[in-house]
Amino acid sequence: MEPGKDVVVKSWVELQAALFDHSWDDKIERFRSAYVYRGNWNKAFNLGTSIMRIGSKYEQLEPHLLRNFRKYAHSSASPGDSFWNWLAVAQHHGLPTRLLDWTYSPLVALHFATEDLSKYEEDGAVWCINYVKTRDYLPVPLKKALDEEGSNVFTPEVLEPVAPSLKALKTFQEQDYVMFLEPPSLDARIIHQYALFSLMSDVRAELSQWLQQHPELYFRVIIPAGLKWEIRDKLDQANITERVLFPGLQGLSHWLKRHYTHK
What is the pTM of this model? Predict the structure, then answer.
């Protein structure tokens, strides 16, 4: 797949090729994708974060949001002392943050591009980012931490010693960069969605704009509106549904409502 390009698919077969054909790894002779995926029901959506939508001074409000979340959530959550665990908990429960949700699973990304039946008149998209190559743009201390761990993504345990807060990310270099963080297994939802987060070094930096400067790192698969029903039905048959991805009665109810809604 050519990086930095929109690939418009016309069938389920073309869609699978677009999402999986890049996953062969010559070094180990196995299918091991270096990409992560994010599905959107509207192809026009960029990769802006939830904190960007709370007002014009969001960069000033970020530390206050996180401090007060930690203060008032302390009795309801137990992520330990790690700032990064707390940030993951906050994102997981809907606090506006600079984090974006991604998944290692192309099929899970397709679920989020097709879950809302009321949006089937809009073309959707799956963003595909080579998270392994994004390491090339990390500052030296962060690269070293990953090298010592033998990993391509951070966990709170790996990140905490080298960068104990969001402020620390800006001290390493002036140029913006993106990093990927695997959250702790807070509940079955994160596990089943095969989830991880991206975050920019500056809260004001927008990932899709940054990617335009680095087209070798990504491509998008465009899903025509007319293909969404077929994708949705085949995902349901493959058991990629709210019942699995959002364990509990709410997820079960959402799945049943959609499953029994007529076209």
Answer: 0.93
